[in-house]
């Protein structure tokens, strides 16, 4: 493996571990919350429901990165 692949692998693993700990701590905080009512959704999120949604943002970012990798490998393998 090249150094760039190793760095990308370590960065991805770091993001996965950080996401796991964040999700775990958030889930524990939700269990400790008193009552079963949801809180009010902030106004900025109500106005931009799709832009502020982290799932949609993740899909857009990953799709953009995959397309950039495809374009990069297509250009470098074509010999331009």
Let me know the number of strands. 0
Largest beta-sheet details: none
Percentage of residues assigned to helices:
over 70%
Range of strand content:
under 5%
Structural class: mainly alpha
Overall radius of gyration: 19 Å
Whole-number mean pLDDT = 80
Our measurement of the CA-to-CA distance between the termini, rounded to an integer number of angstroms, reads 25 Å
Number of domains: 2
Ranges where pLDDT stays below 50 over 5 or more residues in a row are: none
Count of helices?
3
Succession of helices and strands: HHH
C-alpha geometry? elongated
Keywords:
75% helix, mainly alpha, 2 domains
Describe this structure in words.
The chain crosses the membrane at residues 6-24, 56-75. This protein has 80 residues and is an all-alpha fold. The protein has two domains: 1-33; 44-80. Helices cover 75% and strands 0% of the residues. The protein has three helices and no strands.
Structure at a glance:
It is built from three helices and no strands. The protein has helices spanning 3-32, 43-47, 54-78.
């Amino acid at each position: 493996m090249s150094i760039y692949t190793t760095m990308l692998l370590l960065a991805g693993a770091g993001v996965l571990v950080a996401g796991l700990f964040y999700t775990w701590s958030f889930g524990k905080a939700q269990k400790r919350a008193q009552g079963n009512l949801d809180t009010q959704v902030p106004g900025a999120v109500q106005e931009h429901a799709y832009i502020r949604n982290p799932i949609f943002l993740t899909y857009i970012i990953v799709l953009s990165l995959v397309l950039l990798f495809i374009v990069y490998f297509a250009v470098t393998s074509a010999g331009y």
